[in-house]
Amino acid sequence: MSVVALASALAMALLLPPPAVGNADAGAVAVLEAMEPAYARVSGYTARFIRQEIVGERLRPREEAWLKFQAPNRFYLRWIAGPATGRQMLYPGDADGHVLVYEPGTLTGLFTAVLAPDSKHVLEHSRHPVTDVGIGRLVTLILDNTRRALREGELKIVADRIETTAGGQERRMELVFPPAPGRGYYAHRALVGVDVGTQLPVAATIFDAEGRMVEDYAYRELRLNPPLTARDFDAANPDYRFPRWRLRP
């Protein structure tokens, strides 16, 4: 091949869209794969965490909580909107492995509840153990399912666009997985929002095989690697309200 022909071939290759991976566009897949190394650079963050889920076949009200998270897995939550406004939850990530919960109220405000992350009380209010909270868990969940679907040639990306939000720009993708329960995928459809600047997932809406929205999560006002200290994850922090009297139900 002559130099001119080679140069022409390279120029044409650059103009062509990236090759598809099964039914998934390689460019969209690259955005999803980039989430893992992006999260590896995160030591902690704060965010406004938004959640709405179906629990026990009932759609629970939308909730908002202020989240402080420090790697590998300790966090503080303070509910700021929804029926649970005023609730506080702290997971110190220590050997005890329990979560501390403060519920405002005439009686509940007198003590700090000490609960297992997957206790009955926790799962009455959520589809997941409280230790599943956080962007890292979302990265793992998305990539575990997309990588398996890619290997099987079963992943479809039926929407992929850039949208401008209050926080910047988001790559919005709709991922479709086989609906058969026996296939073992977490969802039939997932609407995923990846922040263009941070390369991290900041929104996810999950639909089951019947088309029901079963989970909707978002992380807004995200601030990466802030100067969090041990005090931020200490129940004795005077900015918190955890009573010293502790109750283990």
Task: Supply database-style keywords.
single chain; 249 residues; alpha+beta; 2 domains; 13-stranded mixed beta sheet; two-stranded antiparallel ribbon; 19% helix; globular; disordered N terminus
What would you note in describing this structure?
The structure is a single chain. A hairpin with a 5-residue loop joins strand 13 (201-207) and strand 14 (213-224). The chain has 2 domains: 21-39 and 135-224, no CATH class; 56-133 and 227-247, no CATH class. The protein has helices at residues 3-15, 26-33, 35-40, 120-123, 135-151; strands spanning 20-21, 24-25, 44-55, 58-59, 63-70, 74-81, 88-91, 99-102, 112-115, 156-165, 168-176, 189-195, 201-207, 213-224, 246-247. With 249 residues, it is α+β, with helices and mostly antiparallel strands.
